[in-house]
Amino acid sequence: MSKPQDGFVSRFLNRPISRRITRVLLKFPVRPSVWTISIFVLPIIACVFFVRGDYVSIVIGAAIFQAFSILDGCDGEIARARNLESKFGERLDQFCDFLASLLYVLALGLGVHRSSEGVICAVLITANEWLLRAGKSETLVASPTLHESFYARHRGMVGHSGLLNLGERFVWWLFQLTKRDMAIFAFLVLAALGLADWILHLWMIVAGASLILSAIAAVRSGMGQGDVATREPRA
Predict the structure, then answer these.
(1) Structural domain boundaries of the chain?
(2) 19-50 burial, b for 16+ CB within 10 Å, e for fewer?
(3) pTM value?
(4) pLDDT digits over 168-188, tens only?
(5) Which of 31, 169, 11, 163 is nearest to 93 (CA)?
(6) What's the pLDDT at 141?
(7) Domain 8-222 has CATH 3.40.20.10
(8) pLDDT band at 36 (very low <50, low <70, confident <90, very high)
(9) Which residue, among 41, 46, 40, has the nearest Cα to 64 in the 3D structure?
């Protein structure tokens, strides 16, 4: 029930836990979309802790987000197990993840008295999400392994931005180390180390870099330029 897009944390931590939870959920008539919506209460609760701003509250908030990241895998596992995968479910899951990210940076910004940085992060995340959705996703990304490791909405950005000029292996590692599951876990570690400010700093850097690449990809795609896939992914 795992996915080729899973990062290191999802593959070795989140999935082993979520699969056990999913096996229990499959005994009940739980629909994937209902699960997606029902667990969204967790980011809201986490934000209440973030806004409080003290060390213990921030660690609890980050831990709740990590729990949300784990449980977020169950909806897809339920959908695949019951053959209920749909575009609506995929979009709902992506929207909830996007909204959770906005709540994370805005609430944490308030809690650590860096509201402006939280707002800037939210703007960068929103702009990047818009460009990713607006861009072309049909681009074939180099080798089959590299192609399958990205979600469809990231393939156009990778294929058109010129990032592949740095090498497939570099691009693969770059995305593995900045995937959402890796970020959420790393933010929990930073919170535990008392470095909550760095959560915002790193998120701003990654979101800003991603926005620049998405913008370059959008321009080059519109001009009919970009990287040509070297090998077409096999079905």
Answers:
(1) 8-222
(2) eebbeebeeeebebbebbeebbebbeebbebb
(3) 0.86
(4) 888 878 888 888 899 999 999
(5) 31
(6) 52
(7) no
(8) very high
(9) 46
